[in-house]
UniProtKB/TrEMBL annotation:
Gene Ontology, cellular component aspect: membrane
Domain Signal transduction histidine kinase subgroup 3 dimerisation and phosphoacceptor: start-end pairs: 157-223
Domain of life: Bacteria
Organism the protein comes from: Shewanella denitrificans (strain OS217 / ATCC BAA-1090 / DSM 15013)
Gene Ontology terms, MF aspect: phosphorelay sensor kinase activity; protein dimerization activity
Name of this chain's protein: Histidine kinase, dimerisation and phosphoacceptor region
Keyword line: Kinase, Membrane, Transferase, Transmembrane, Transmembrane helix, Two-component regulatory system
Gene3D superfamilies attached to this UniProt entry: 1.20.5.1930, Histidine kinase-like ATPase, C-terminal domain (3.30.565.10)
Pfam families, alphabetized: HisKA_3
Keyword Kinase among record annotations: yes
Chain ranges passing through the membrane: 52-82, 89-106, 112-131
Amino acid sequence: MYLINLIFYFIPLYFMPFEPLTFGLVLAALVPFVACYFWAYNSNSQKAIYPIMAMIVLACLVTPLSTGSLSFFSFCGFFIGFFYPLKRALLGFAAISLILLSLNIAVGFEHYMFTLYGMLIVFAVGVLGVVERKRHQIKRQQLQSRNEIHTLATMLERERIARDLHDIMGHSLSCIALKAELADKLVAANQLDLARQQLQELGLIARESLTQVRDTVSSYKHKGLDASLSPLLQSLRDKGIAARLEGDIPKLDPNTEGQLILILTEWVSNMLKHSQAQDCSIQFKQQGSELELVMADDAKASPITEGNGLRGIRERVSALGGSFNYTTQGHYRFCVRLPLTNPINQAQAGGAQQ
C-alpha cells in the first residue's frame, strides 16, 4: 500500500527532459529499491538498519540523475520512524538531512530547495512512521490484554468447575462408598434386610448425584444472552464493522435466551460471510408485554432469497410465539418480536428496565 507514494518518483521523469540512458537507469533503480522495501518491511528493529542503509545508498546514487530520489529518502524516513525510538529516529532524520545537504553541494544544485524540501518530506513521513509504530504497539497490547483476559477467564472457569464438582460429588461419593461398605458387611453378617435398605439408599444417592451433575452441566452450557453477545460483537469489530449494542439486554428464561443467542449467531455469521457493511447495530426494546430485537446494518440492500439461515430464524421465532420480518429499503433491517407472556420473562425484563 505504501508503495503508491513512488508516484512522486516519476514526476521529474514526466516534467524534465532526460537522455534515454539516464531515463533507463532511473527506472532500473526501482527494482533494487522495491526489493529493499520488502526487505525492510519484513525486518525487525535489530535488522532493519541494513535495508534502510541500502535504500539510502541507492537514493544517493540516483540523486545526480533525478531529484525523484527524494521519494526514496522519504521511505527511509518512514522506516526509521517506524522501527526506532523517538530519540534515535530524530538522530536518523538529522543524518539524512546532512546527507541531503552534502548531495545538494556535491551535485551542484543552484539553490537549496532540494535539501529543504527533502528535509521536510523526510521529517513528515518519519512522523507518520512513529505514529504507525505506536498504533502497532497499541494493537499488540490490546491483543495481549485480550489473550490474558481470556486465559484468566479460562483459569477461573476451571477452578469454578473443579469447586462445583468437589462440592457436588465429594459428599455423594463418600456416602456411596460408606453405604456400599456397610451393605457388604451386612451381607456378610447375613442381615439381608438391612443390607437391602442400605443398597436402596445408595441407589437414591446415586440418582440424586446424577441429577445434580446434569443440572450443573446445563448451567455451564447456558452462558446467558449477556455473555454470548460480547464475542459476537467482537467478531464483527475484528472484521472492521463498527458494531453497536443499543438498549438494555433483557433477562429471560433459559429457553428464550438460548433461542435468541442462536438467532443472533446466525445473523452475525451471515454478516461475516456476505455483508459489505461498515456499521451495524443490535437493539433491544421492550414495548409493553412485547420484546423487540432489531438487527440493522448500512450495507446497500438487495432483494433477499430466504435460505436455511433465515428459515431457521423464522422457525425459532415462531416456536417462541413471536414474529419475524425484515426490510430491504435502502439498508437491511431485521426485526424479531417476542411476547413476554412467560411470568419469568415479564418479571426479569421489567427488572432490567428498572
